[in-house]
Amino acid sequence: MLSNIELPTSYVQAVQPPEVEKRLVTALKMQDQQALSTLYKMYSASLKGIILKVIIHEETAEDILQELFVKIWKSIDKYDDSKGRLFTWMSRLAKNMAIDQVRRKSHVNTSKHVDIEEKVGDIDQKLSYKINTDIIGIRKLTTAMNPMQRLLLNMVYFEGYTHTEIAEELNLPLGTVKSRIRFALLELRKMF
To answer: Residue 179 and residue 182: Cα distance in Å, rounded?
Structure first.
């Protein structure tokens, strides 16, 4: 089918004339393998150059180039010559595939990082233990304390208030709240 398309002996770095591209597209749409081979000879060097502007590694660029020609072969029906030249369409595909590869690679690296951090967190959680204050009787011990000390310890340790929030809630200076919590802890330590 493509016997009437003359191919230069070296790789072509420029866009082919529209009539050559039209015959090539027609042959590709008819699943002519010779057309794919011709397309590869005509454009592989230029498309690889586009890919190498995005991808650093030569081997990865060659892999993407092979994937590109498979994609062109499978999706040639999506090419619309009214929207642009064949080379423009292929170069856009090449660039997008190269960018996708970079993104995919960075996503893999990011997810590996996240997995490691999650694993460290899981290990820390398994190795650490939490003391359940209800089991060891801390709440019962606080009942023997004066009401203000009990209130402060309940607010800070059982209800999750910050020192600043307690000071605002009880309308006390922050320094007073901190001192009273410290004294309450010292009292608790004596009982425990």
So the answer is: 5
Residue type, position 143, single letter: T
Q: How many C-beta atoms surround the C-beta of residue 117 within 10 A?
A: 10
Q: Which residue has the tokens 């993104």?
A: 103
Domains by residue range for the chain, with CATH: 18-107 (1.10.1740.10), 133-191 (1.10.10.10)
pLDDT along the chain (192 residues), means of 10: 44 60 88 89 89 88 92 89 86 91 68 54 55 62 84 84 91 93 87 72
Nearest to 33 by CA among 9, 60, 2: 2
Tokens of 22: 């039209």
Residue 113 to residue 92: CA distance in whole angstroms: 31
Residues in the chain: 192
